[in-house]
Design goal:
The structure is a single chain. This protein is α/β, with parallel strands linked by helices. Helices cover about 30% and strands about 20% of the residues. It contains seven helices and ten strands. The chain has helices at about 25-35, 50-55, 75-100, 115-125, 140-145, 165-175, 190-200, and strands spanning about 10-15, 35-40, 65-70, 100-105, 130-135, 160, 180-185, 205-210, 215-220, 235. The strands form two sheets. Strands 3-2-4-1-5 form a five-stranded parallel β-sheet, sandwiched between helices. Strands 6-7-10-8-9 form a five-stranded mixed β-sheet, with helices on both faces. The longest helix has 22 residues, at about 75-100. The radius of gyration is 20 Å and the shape is elongated. The relative contact order is 0.16.
Length: about 250
């Protein structure tokens, strides 16, 4: 049996930011344009995702390959993993056919990204493939810039919590020091609001979604009524500060 060596195959995870095409780095654009094909993840419902919409500003449609990752499947682990396996097989075939494949992911490829799962799968399917990542602007950075919320000062820690891990995890973080950022909590908005109130962190917190897009919505967390929010919601609860300059240095 003849085995094709994977030497020369390259998979690059490219962070394309939270949605505003102007927030893709120059290095990210260059990586997208240098790849033979650019893979964008799509849900099994088929609609155009944020990553694809961003990439289309820099790469022609004919060089983009849509691969279903069933990103809206959060309850059935077996179905989710089957979708990842199928997506990995598709990307492996693209690597063998083209050599260099870029995978566009919203935010950063090393922060809660589907790219992590893909890279693990490719390492098994196409051993020896070079895997690289290009960092991207995260939603918390974009929300901080658009809202004026300062993420960290001096020696303050920064805690990033995916609320899909449970509201209790968020509450523990809010009871601790420093700034807390929450991701992925649209359906759990009521629990997030309760955690903010119970820990005394509601008044300074800011929420945002669709950053840099037509539907952008940024508001004080105190204005949220506890109803469902978009899944890709971001919350910043700044550290408790006394208002003095350099107070945390």
């Amino acid at each position: 049996m003849c085995h094709v060596m994977s030497e020369g195959y390259r998979l690059v995870g490219v962070g394309v930011g939270p949605g505003d095409p102007e927030l893709v780095t120059v290095k990210g654009v260059n990586a997208l344009r240098a790849a033979d094909v650019v893979v964008v993840p799509v849900m099994d419902t088929g609609e155009r995702g944020r990553a694809e919409a961003t990439v289309l500003h820099y790469v022609p449609q004919e060089r983009i390959v849509r691969v279903v990752f069933a990103l809206n499947e959060r309850s059935d682990r077996a179905r989710r993993e089957a979708a990842w396996d199928a997506a990995g097989e598709r990307v492996a075939a693209l690597l063998r056919a083209h050599g260099t494949v870029a995978f566009a992911t919203i935010g950063d490829p090393n922060v809660y990204s589907t790219f992590t799962y893909l890279a693990h799968t490719i390492a098994r399917l196409v051993p020896g493939t070079e895997v690289a990542t290009v960092p991207g602007i995260t939603a918390m950075q974009d929300l901080a810039a658009r809202s004026g919320a300062v993420l960290t000062e001096g020696t303050e820690p920064l805690t990033l919590v995916p609320v899909t891990a449970g509201a209790a995890v968020l509450k523990d973080a809010l009871n601790g020091p420093g700034t807390v950022v929450a991701y992925k909590f649209g359906r759990l908005a009521e629990g997030v609001a309760a955690a903010l109130r119970e820990t005394g962190r509601l008044d300074d917190a800011v929420w945002g979604s669709a950053l840099g897009l037509d539907g952008e919505d940024i508001r004080p967390a105190a204005e949220l009524d506890g109803g469902p929010l978009p899944y890709l919601s971001t919350l910043i609860a700044p550290a408790r500060r006394d208002g003095s300059r350099g107070g945390k240095l």
